[in-house]
Queue: 4 jobs
Job 1
Amino acid sequence: MIEINPREVASEGLYRIFEEQSFNNVVLKSILKQNGAMAKNDKAFVTEIVNGTLRNIYYIDYVINQFSNTKTDKIKPWLLAVMRSAVYQIIFMDKVPVSASCNEAVKLAKKRGYGKLSGFVNGVLRSISRNVDNIELPKYGTPEYLNIKYSHPLWLIKMWLHEYDYDFVENLCKSNNEPPDVTVVVNTLKTDRDSLKNDLEKEDIVVSLGKYHQNVLHLKKTSDISNLDAFKKGLFHIQDESSVTAVKVLDPKKGEKILDICSAPGGKSMLSAELMENLGEISSRDIYYHKIELIEDSSKRLGLSIINAEEKDALQFYPEDVEKFDRVLVDAPCSGFGIIKKKPDIKFRRTGNDIDELIKIQRGILENASKYVKKGGVLVYSTCTICKKENIKNVQWFLENFNFELEDIDNLLPNGVNSQTKGCVSFYPNVNGTDGFFIARFRRKEN
């Protein structure tokens, strides 16, 4: 029988994420599939190390640099992956013996041909393990403290501090480092909330009710959701409660023509179809063909026949769609700072320059989408980011340049959620327990 070392698998995952610039969710899925013979608890161990290391990457590198004469930017990539994962285990995983973390790291260094450097690895890790309680951080109250303590890029911390007070930003960063639940939406065309809850609990999944929406469930202790019978039968799809709110603000009605212009992975289209009782037309678009296939597969699994998945570029104008739709949803490509909890690699992949480029894309999509809305129709703009330039500043730009007005949404929001300004609402992980999210609802003027 082949023995699989979960620490080696985790280190390999980290190596790929940083060296190949691969996305953590893609890498995790790949390495867990490649090592499918691993026990369930070993797969969970690998996932915890990879995601936990990414969540705390600035802190981990800061600690390594305090105790190593060779700094992280000079350490061999494979050794750095091994050391990062070991430091995460030493500092953040209380149930993992320190000696095991150090010894296994040395073995992995030797296994990949770095025997001569195994003493260096051992020395640094042992020094860290002896001084875990003596790590000196930057002064509290400074951006640098939040940067290191909660492993968020300094430029992002400074941007948030320009918009929010220090305590809020600290709590936001702290919340971003907590493991997320899996949130699912009940397919009300096939089942009901309580029946699905019972089905999932029989699979030893910990299930709790949604905080804001009736047909939402939160799941813990899940492994591969796609293997569940309830998933295969199309009894639910994955979607955060903030994203569910965007669909509720869109308020699709039976028999209408709806455009979801940046649809993938398709959760908002799926929920819209369910709310419409599978009556009407939904054009669900994305620029990438493989994502269109994903939408088609999900629609089929959920038994939704009104969704027409189309490979179309939202930045390209289509004259045939002018004034064709009752409601248009623009869930725009964005910096994604609202979903750091789910995709921690966003923290070190994005830069301030990315935001400026994204704003151009967002405004180009909004300009096209505005032309597809019937007179008197509704346009909803949403993002999964916490960045005023991408959110409220785009709303102001849109109102100044197009024949639309913001529409009051308080009657469409769930209990406990209020609009900050007319027609706009923001969600925050530290406040709402959801993704960070922004939603604005416009109505096209009749003349």
Job 2
Amino acid sequence: MKNKKIIIICSLILMFIANTIVVLSGGYQDIDTIIRNTVMLYSSETVSKAMHVITFFGSTYWIVALCALIFVFLLFKKKRSNAYSIASVLIFSTVVNNVIKLIIRRPRPEYISVVEHSFSYPSGHTMAAATLYGFIIYLISKSDILKKYKLIYSGVLALLIILVGLSRIYLGAHFFSDVFGGMIVSATVLVSFSLIDDYKKILE
């Protein structure tokens, strides 16, 4: 299992490198435009309001607050390892996101409809949502709750991750390639931390 995770991590890293090269070369221009135009076919006042609500679930304020609550809850449940892990994975993901943004320095779309002050690639909201909710899915999978509830909770969280990414495209805050890149990085971080968790259990 550990070897499979190492292969997955290496594959994700190569995928991100390839994705970044295509982004820098302008190869995503047509795809980004097509996906943006397709998403905007469903544009309306109601959808716009919904997207503003959905994108909040990937915002710094919400993610930090939720992570803090989960951290305290896990400490209360005497699950210190999980508490420190969820905080660490989010902090690490945030640092990685900011470093990549500063290296790539991709401008935001010209049609952006929200206020943002950072660079575009990869999507920070998407990475934050995918990292935190993805790690919660990981904790759920390791819990002793009934399988049907695992599927329900995990499905809702996975859908929320996708919707946050979609909201960033709809609001013009990011290109599709930004969101896709963010998903890849978050997946890499999550699989890496699950691998570390496996080795921690061996040492224990």
Job 3
Amino acid sequence: MPTNHPLTADDRAAFDADGFLLRRGVFSAQEVAALNRIVTTDPVIAESVYGREDAGGGLTELALWRDLGDDMFSDVAQSRAISDPLEELLGGDISFFHAKLTLKRPHEGGAWDWHQDYGYWYRAGFPFPDMASVFIALDPSKRENGCLQVIRGSHRMGRIEHGVNADQVGADMRRVDAALDRLERIDVEMEPGDALFFHGNLLHASGRNTSENTRNVLLCCYSRSDNIPFAQNAQTRLTAFEPLEGDDIMRHADRPIAREKDFADGKPAVSV
């Protein structure tokens, strides 16, 4: 059964100190199976996926969208399982920013350089780092297939300068090396349905997929609703939403993704 109990004082303290909080079993096996079915069979997803190469030529596939609609991805993004804890962790009402799939195929899924999500979102015009991502494992996410790596407490370093490295937006490696010298690097191994909540300034990366298995992930990204970007456009739109109860997550499990969904066109975007 999903584990959607309220946050404890220890949970909130851990997020503030570490920059992340791992919650096990947030989504059920049935919900994960339905999401994976959409990922692997929906033609609109297949048409919307684009690739990003790491420095060694490994390819990770992405599909990114900026809207909420009548589909299961949107229902997950609006679920109380995400919104209730995240509002506590960010200290206020949240709005949806965007969501994406990152797909690492067996033996060829690429790595992601160390970066902060806010290192990219800052450039888009968000004035404050009151932003977070929720990494939802659709497959077992392990060291051998490129699980998320984080540097515990690195969000307290503030925003780090970022530059484009090949197809990716990476953090200044002098700062990353300083963080690695002083702070703990963690491989965040997860099971399907687990969710990692992490701060927009947390340094994170992922390795290549050297295994026989896929590493599929759904990432949902949010901002505090009062963190209005000064450069407002289609790429920085925030969408308010009413949280959905857990029983509603499966309501669109068999509905195809609408061709009108607001997918990105393949421009660089941070991911994991």
Job 4
Amino acid sequence: MRKVQWGTAVLLAIYMCILAYVCFFSEGYGRTAVDGYHYNLIPFREIMRFYTYREYVGFSAFMLNLFGNVLAFAPFGFAVPVLSRMNRRFVNVAWLTFILSLTIELLQLMLKVGSFDVDDLLLNTLGGMIGYGVFFAVNHIRRKCFAR
């Protein structure tokens, strides 16, 4: 394994530990429900709710819900193609990001920790795709500038 891949594997392991902490153990980010466990199975429902009530929940809560989920999964979308040439296809990275997000959401549903939200699946997968886009751009620049 090349040094870049090894370093990426270490960073991905650290990232996965932080992601697990935030999703399952952190007191913040919706981990504690005030009046019972909540879940959302209707696409765009929570996104629209946060947008509609952004003045009440606060701009930072709105931005955290929308962009936090996207940004949280961008590193995964960047790291996967670095680790494996087989996963350098956009579809593979999108699929793997969706599977990771679905696993987290289903665990939250079964363990009643946080909340299962189909919008999170959409936003997390979008984040992975954005991470892949960054990888693709960086890899393209690397190949042009450092080609031998």
